[in-house]
């Protein structure tokens, strides 16, 4: 499938432009409603998932486009090793991040008013938290830097895969879309 996409130069490499005609592709994919949830395992990449699920690494674009992933460096989960390297580069330390508070998250009881319900999504800086009275601190839980960064990385592991039974139909329709025989 990638052979049919227009080529672009990127970092001195000739590559398939997976963003070519992106809106028509999205429209075609939107027709299909059968997706399966998938949890990315440590070290898996779009091409390895495509190979395992669709039988060819050429369908890495399908794994990515179905999940609105355009930058595998920033939108794909880091491996555990890459995650620790990332933490060290960003914070110049790793172990201390387990006790360093990033912010406080409200985990107390929500009420019935819009403001009380909205409070469940509020975050508070450690500086603001320090200014609160003991009663004002009630319901606020610390979120440590390590946990926050790990939460962000782990949230990228949940993707969806288009059912393999539609792969041939996608090939056929995209060939028609690109006017390829």
Short description:
The chain is an alpha+beta fold and 181 residues long. 39% of the residues lie in helices and 17% in strands.
Give the helix/strand class: alpha+beta
Nearest-angstrom radius of gyration?
22 Å
- What is the succession of H and E elements? EEHEHHHEHEHEHEH
Query: Care to count the β-strands?
Result: 7
Q: How are strands sequenced across the largest beta sheet?
A: 5-4-6
| Approximate shape | elongated
Low-confidence runs: none
User: Percentage of helical residues?
Assistant: 25-40%
Q: What fraction strand?
A: 15-25%
Mean pLDDT: 85
Major sheet characteristics: 3 strands, antiparallel
Distance linking N and C termini: 12 Å
Q: Note the total helix count.
A: 8
Number of domains: 2
What does this structure look like?
The protein is α+β, with helices and mostly antiparallel strands and 181 residues long. It is 39% helix and 17% strand. It has 2 domains: 2-77 and 156-177, no CATH class; 80-154, no CATH class. The chain has helices at 22-30, 46-54, 60-66, 80-91, 114-118, 126-131, 145-155, 167-177; strands at residues 7-10, 13-16, 35-39, 101-106, 123-124, 140-144, 158-162. It has a 3-stranded antiparallel beta sheet. A two-stranded antiparallel ribbon has the order 1-2. Strand 1 and strand 2 form a beta hairpin.
Write the topology of this structure.
Layout lengths: L6 E4 L2 E4 L5 H9 L4 E5 L6 H9 L5 H7 L13 H12 L9 E6 L7 H5 L4 E2 L1 H6 L8 E5 H11 L2 E5 L4 H11 L4
Antiparallel strand pairs: 1-2, 3-7, 4-5, 4-6
Summary tags:
single chain, 181 residues, alpha+beta, three-stranded antiparallel β-sheet, two-stranded antiparallel sheet
